[in-house]
Amino acid sequence: MIDTTQLQDMDAAQLRALAMELMSEVRARDSELRFKDARIAQLTHEMAVLKRWKFAARSEKLGAEQQSLLDEAIDADLVAIEQEIEQLAAQSKADAIPNKPRRMPLPANLPRIEVRHEPESTTCGCGCQLRRIGEDVSEKLDYTPGVFTVERHVRGKWVCARCETLIQAPVPAQVIDKGIPTAGLLAQVLVAKYGDHLPLYRQEGIFGRAGLAIPRSTLAQWVGMCGVQLQPLVDALKEQMLRHRVMHADETPVAMLSPGKGKTQRAYLWTYCPGAFEDLKAVVYDFADSRAGEHARDFLRDWRGQLVCDDFTGYKALFAQGVTELGCMAHARRKFYDLHTASKSEIARDALQYIGQLYEIEREVQQLAPNERLDIRQQRARPIAEALHAWMTQQRVRVSEGSAIAKALDYSLRRWVALTRYLDDPQVPIDNNWCHAASGMTGIMPTPRLCRVMHPRGGGSVLS
Question: Is residue 341 one of the residues assigned to a domain?
């Protein structure tokens, strides 16, 4: 500290030097405070996102303001309904009786088993014989799970009495040669395992309750054999898929049991499907024990089309080899949504409004012809995208380096060319959501090596 006496003894040059030193110290402290504020905001945002992922619902629900508006609308509707009820009460009794709901008939193609209910005696108490004048029929829906049946394949032997030539029909082709399961039973095991998430040990118990316990080791052998038999179909589907110029790709972490270690390790299920506007609706899943980009390169090989994906570095080598990168607007939007949910950021709110307008246009052009879709994108979506880019560029100059909003803006600005390529090509979608939803499609699994194939978007290992 410098007291008043010391200041009085200083000349002008010394005072200027002291002032410069103090200003430099103020600037340094101010910069440090800004850095700390940005860091605090970043940590607060990250903590809020983690808490929301851990405790809150995963779906995007209404905010407090929207919920308040909804409550007001509900109150108004209740009053209107009460008023209508009072008016209806004054009408005639016939008009006030509502129509009874009609039950839809059960499908005619379902097999029917008739259960007859007749009196124990058809003789009247007076001694006369009763005469049947009609019947009432009601249908109930029943279900019998896990019913085993046995197919007996009888191959007759025919011999010629003169030349003793023996003739017999050939053995019909089976998925597993000399095995006991039919194609229907194998399909049940596979669908239950990969579609219904039923591990083989649970299926073993289910079959046991049906009267025949099939060991899980046997079920695992069946699954492996089916994988080998289905591999040509996987290869054919992959070949057809790679003929399309627009593709989606996504990788999902799954838990894989590590034999010998007694614990799980992280593996990945890579999902590939043609573009959302392509004519082939199919999915191929490629299991890998890591997230290395070499797995995507091995799968796509010489394909040089347009790939919709997120900003994962594993895809970068593909772009260097000639694959065109298509960005995912949903990932860009997610950055701002998380920020707005955590801190009610006005910048994030404005960004969501811009992106919402782009999605509104996409909903309108979803079912249109390609040329119509392209015209509307050029006329209506492009001006919005250009305004969004200019606005993001302006906001980026104003926000602190390293802050959460800076990272959200950088994600979109850095990938802007890839994010907006869809505006110039009607076959290109705005995001990668088609691939995320592809888990619900009918796809073909690759060969389940050691039964380690995982179901898409699911958690937990299916090694049984």
Answer: yes
